[in-house]
Design goal:
The chain has 18 helices and eleven strands. By secondary structure, the chain is an alpha/beta fold. The longest helix has 18 residues. The radius of gyration is 24 Å and the shape is globular.
């Protein structure tokens, strides 16, 4: 156990880790911890006997248009959708301040179920949800339907399809999404978010959310898109890479993209990266673009909406990184092995596939969006003991938070709020840290000394890095508007090997063609 917290990580959501442990049930285990959940891990608020009459009264008030003037108006939902009137009345009353939390819990019990759409690529996360989250909700009379998707965009597409079919609040398919970046921006632009709930749930107290609080910026903006309290943080990530030192000594591990290119030429076929638009693959490309920018590794040009820049300026910013990626191709796994010989580069489809290539000895380096990934992989036997985390790339290891958001057409809005609150509790965050090594997104200054000590107790090994290393090389993520363009450019310029001049391709994609 370390004797002090890392004080230098950027932002209020500094990452504290969790040891990898066991989860009971189903014959599948996560090794190491004997307890089922941290002490006190429970839903703290129980339904009030008087909650349902208040909800009915709110519905009558809405339908009769009698007392709305005395309630703080909630932001309107899209009028072109067919909303369930009872669900709509609940939303108006809750966001307007007419319902207390016991009323939410009571309605959640009446709704009986909640559908959480989340990335399903981590078996440890899936087991944790089944063994920790589902029983907590079940104790409140709510059945958790965990819907695992290969990519968050799949969940967003379900919400968009429901809206296209006219399904509004109470009539859609998705209650809660683990989301960030371009996916959140898509729902925000489509006006398909439930509303400003984040500061209203009981466990909001663990986050800096007030607009006037400087520490709240990382919680109120999602890759440049204002959250407007329509989502609450759930995961704090930093993109890190790791190597197997049995095959590549730490002294030879690259610290920047020039060193990576030199290593790839020296050891052709021993590196690759995940294919965009997978999140981890896009992040690798983003970091190359930032690190190799025309003015050096500076993020500032990428913090604005790409639509505000000219095609010439976008080309100037992106071309060095994409030229680097094209020049790297012959030396990737499956590449031709020499200059000008592209071969058939192999781009794994996911971070898990990337990890397997390293574990099997086929490549030397892989990356993830979790500073404790190497620790978890070693603990669970997926990675060899010789794996270490490295600094790469210097001054360009991006940091961000991802969030929980409720769609505007959630079928079970009260149960969605209950699940969001449960996942935002200190106990839940410490549980996922301790059991599966997922960094917390809570703001540490808001925790009590006892809670901070509990987090420190389960803080895992960084396997090669220090918290000072992470802080020194951390940068914020770029504006979400760049992501679709980068993904489309990669597909045309890299995967398809387009012979079109890069500037012309950029201009055409910016025009939407």
């Amino acid at each position: 156990m370390r004797d002090e917290f890392p004080h230098s990580l950027p932002g209020p959501g500094r990452m504290v880790g969790g040891v990898t442990d066991s989860l009971p049930g189903g014959g599948a285990t996560l090794r190491g911890v004997t307890h089922h959940r941290p002490p006190g891990h429970r839903l703290r608020v129980r339904p009030s006997d008087h909650a349902r009459p208040r909800l009915v009264a709110a519905l009558v008030a809405l339908l009769a248009c009698a007392s709305l003037a005395q309630v703080q108006a909630a932001p309107p939902l899209r009028a072109d959708l067919q909303h369930d009137l009872d669900a709509l009345a609940f939303r108006e009353a809750w966001l307007g301040g007419d319902l207390d939390w016991p009323a939410v819990v009571a309605r959640a019990r009446d709704e009986g179920a909640v559908r959480w759409y989340h990335w399903g690529g981590s078996e440890e996360l899936n087991l944790w949800i089944e063994a920790e989250v589902a029983p907590s909700l079940n104790a409140a009379g709510v059945r958790l339907e965990s819907v695992r998707v290969p990519a968050t965009r799949d969940a967003v597409d379900v919400v968009l399809a429901d809206a296209a079919a006219g399904r509004g609040l109470g009539r859609g398919s998705v209650d809660l999404i683990w989301i960030n970046g371009d996916n959140f921006r898509t729902l925000a632009q489509a006006d398909l978010l439930f509303g400003p709930f984040a500061d209203l749930i009981p466990n909001a107290r663990w986050f800096a959310l007030a607009e006037e609080d400087p520490a709240a910026a990382i919680n109120r903006y999602d890759l440049g898109t204002p959250t407007l309290l329509r989502s609450i943080p759930w995961f704090a990530g930093q993109y890190v890479c790791y190597v197997d030192t049995a095959r590549l000594p730490l002294a030879r591990a690259p610290r920047d993209h020039a060193a990576l290119a030199a290593l790839a030429r020296e050891r052709p076929g021993r590196f690759t990266y995940v294919r965009p638009p997978d999140y981890i693959g896009t992040a690798f490309v983003q970091q190359a673009v930032v690190a190799l920018g025309p003015a050096g590794p500076r993020l500032e040009p990428f913090l604005d909406d790409v639509a505000l820049l000219s095609a010439a300026e976008v080309t100037r910013l992106l071309e060095p990184g994409f030229a680097y990626l094209r020049e790297l191709e012959p030396f990737l796994l499956g590449g031709g092995g020499s200059e000008g010989e592209r071969g058939v580069p192999v781009y794994p489809a996911s971070a898990a596939a990337w990890e397997r290539l390293l574990a099997s000895g086929e490549i030397d380096l892989a990356c993830e969006d979790n500073v404790f990934h190497a620790h978890s992989g070693v603990e669970r036997g997926r990675l060899p003991e010789s794996v270490r985390t490295i600094v790469f790339p210097e001054r360009a290891m991006r940091v961000n938070k991802s969030f929980l958001a409720i769609p505007a057409n959630a079928p079970h809005p009260a149960a969605a709020l209950l699940l969001a609150d449960e996942l935002s509790s200190v106990e839940s965050h410490l549980s996922k840290l301790a059991l599966i090594g997922f960094p917390i997104a809570l703001d540490l200054p808001r925790l009590s000394p006892e809670q901070r000590a509990a987090a420190l107790e389960v803080s895992p090994d960084l396997r090669g890095l220090s918290y000072d290393d992470l802080a020194e090389h951390a940068v914020p993520d770029m504006h979400a508007s760049w992501v679709p363009l980068i993904d489309r450019l990669w597909e045309r310029w890299i995967a398809q090997g387009s012979g079109e001049p890069f500037a012309d391709l950029v201009a055409r994609l910016l025009d939407g063609s």
